[in-house]
Amino acid sequence: MRCRVKRNGVLAAWSGLLLAAFYLISQSDFIFPVGGVQVVIREYWSWPLSKSVGGSASWVDQGNYMPLNVSYQLLAGTPATKLKFLAVGLASVKRKKGSYLLPTLGSLFSQSSSRERASMVVVVLLPDFDAEWRGETVEKIRAAHPSELEQGQLLVIHVPPQFYPPLTELKRNYNDAPERVSFRSKQNVDYSYLMHYSSSHGRYYLQLEDDVSAARNFLRTIAKSIRERRSVNWATLEFSSLGYIGKLFKAEHLPILARFLFLFYQEMPCDWLLSHFRELLVQKEQILIKPSLFQHMGTFSSFQGTLNKLKDKFFEEVYSNPPADVYSDISVYSDNVPRLAWEAGEGYFWGRTPEPGDCLTVVLRAPVVVTSVNVETGLDGKDFLEFGVVELGRSVVTTSKGEKGCQTYKPLGYMANGMFAKQDLDVELRSTSSCLRLRVLGKQKDWIIIMKIRITSRSPEQSPTPDFGMVII
User: What would the pLDDT profile of 240-295 be if each residue is shown by its tens digit?
Assistant: First the structure.
């Protein structure tokens, strides 16, 4: 059984010697015992003097230090000539049961706009030593994503086995079986090499697995989260609560992170090492962004094909809110503005005690056919909307306050215990909508928190638009 106390003790001791270890590594050889014979592998890397002294940035922030002695084979894709905003890294090995790599790539690209795809590059490391499997996988990727490969949005790489340290007869920390120790140790080296390669391809790096699905416009949410934390000294932002899925790093930290994973590759699993690395860069608390942007979709693990039904409870699979402007005549508390109820993320709208007739109105920038609506209010059983109705509207107009709204509205239903959910609205209404409104119907003593308003929709071309049967309000 893995013991957190033990792993913390092990890493505390190792981390205390980390800088000394970096220095010693730069001055000496790696000696790997192979079959009773000591094989010496010289590490050639440089640490320029300009990086070690002077300048306003720390030696970590300056980057460009401690490169690994490794050569990469580019199996498919054309590297871009300009640095991307985001490099997305994932490694994929041969599985005993099924493969999720192509669905994962399909999700990443299909859930991104053309502009978002142009701002990112997905780097796929195929670290399996089975050359036949690698060749077949590359051909499948080429057939599925020719344009992404051509446009520098997808790269497929491999690292030959001679660049790997010993992967057998390793220390059995936490009493893991030898097979599991070898698997997770190689995985640490895989990710070390993947991060090392990706550090020169994007300003930020996102770590994923090869069996995940992505939320729509995930890159836009990531960029927004980064902007909101410009004044925060962070090392890792987490867009999933599962393991090392959805972990975001700054590119300048990747060289030291790659070295960190390589040095301690046989000590513990990757997600534990990533947590310790975050703490070493003086980020004590986890920064978990909700809702999660990535969901684990694999059923069988890459380790021996074991069953793995792990799911992220914070993932919003159906989140697809279109661009909109949000208004409310409810008095806002602090910076918890109305649009936070509409946008993805941890934020929410928090208003002072509402009066009957007060509204929160979402005005869509383009009409859509709404297929479902989900509204959640309140937090920890408090500040929920006691009496309210949810309405869809048409015909956008400008109010006397200079805000926008709709001329006509149709009620969908009433709030119950602070919640509202309704599906298959396009079957019932068969029309486009330009507004969604939450209207207060009765007095209440408490303030109001609107946690989220979520809709699913489709384009107007896919549905007829007969008379809406509106009541002018």
Answer: 888 778 999 999 999 989 998 888 888 878 788 888 888 888 788 889 988 888 88
Peptide bond between residue 291 and the one before it cis (omega within 30 degrees of 0): yes
Shared domain check, 332 and 292: no
Strand pairing class (30-34; 388-398) = unpaired
Domain that holds residue 429: 324-472
Q: Tell me if 310 is assigned to some domain.
A: no
pTM above 0.70, yes or no: no
Pairing, β 212-214 against β 294-296: antiparallel
Domain contains 204: yes
| Bond before 411 cis per omega within 30 degrees | no
Segment 396-452, tens digit of pLDDT: 999 888 899 999 999 999 998 899 988 888 888 878 999 999 999 999 999 999 998
Residue 317 counted as domain residue: no
Q: Same domain, yes or no, for 81 and 205?
A: yes
Separation between Cα atoms, residue 327 and residue 351, nearest integer Å: 12
Instruction: Identify which of 415, 296, 315, 436 has the alpha carbon closest to the alpha carbon of residue 364.
Output: 436
Does residue 243 lie within any of the structural domains? Answer: yes
User: How many domains does the structure of the chain reveal?
Assistant: 2
Integer angstrom CA distances of residue 218 from 107, 170, 208, 241, 387: 11, 39, 13, 15, 34
